[in-house]
Amino acid sequence: MDLHKRYKRRVLHGTNTLREKETLELRWYFENVTLKTMPSVNHIQITDPEEFTVTENTKFCDVVLEDITNNDKKALDEKNMYTRIDENVDVGCYLFFDNSF
Fold first, then answer.
1. What are the boundaries of each domain within the chain?
2. Strand arrangement, sheet containing 41-46
3. pLDDT (0 to 100) of residue 58
4. Are 84 and 63 spatial neighbours (Cβ–Cβ below 8 Å)?
5. 36-83: per-residue pLDDT in tens?
6. Residue 15, exposed/middle/buried by CB under 10 A (0-12, 13-18, 19+)?
7. Are 18 and 12 in contact, with CB atoms under 8 Å apart?
């Protein structure tokens, strides 16, 4: 067995590049640790980027919301939002959280 194959098996665990390995590890960590243990995970309705209204057909997804500042949670302050990488979430999406958009 050549040195490169041993390196890929030992360090990269079957992936081709280090970036691909780290991406897979981060996806696994987000799915199995963050979404299951963090208290700030919410199952909320969120629109697609070109959709303007939230209806009964609007998708639900798990979102981690974190305050940038430690203000009142109902105040109009900035929040960081984390979703799965394969969700269609971008600038211009509307989400229904805490009885407001």
1. 1-37, 40-101
2. 79-82, 60-67, 41-46, 95-96
3. 82
4. no
5. 888 888 888 888 888 887 777 888 888 888 776 665 556 566 778 888
6. middle
7. yes
Q: What percent of the chain has pLDDT over 70?
A: 88
Three-state helix/strand/coil letters over the chain: CCHHHHHHHHCCCCCCCHHHHHHHHHHHHHHHHHHHHCCCEEEEEECCCCCCCCCCCCCEEEEEEEECCCCCCCCCCCEEEECCCCCCCCCCCCEEECCEC
Residues in the chain: 101
Radius of gyration of the chain (CA): 19
Torsion of CA 22, 27, 33, 38, to 10 degrees: 120
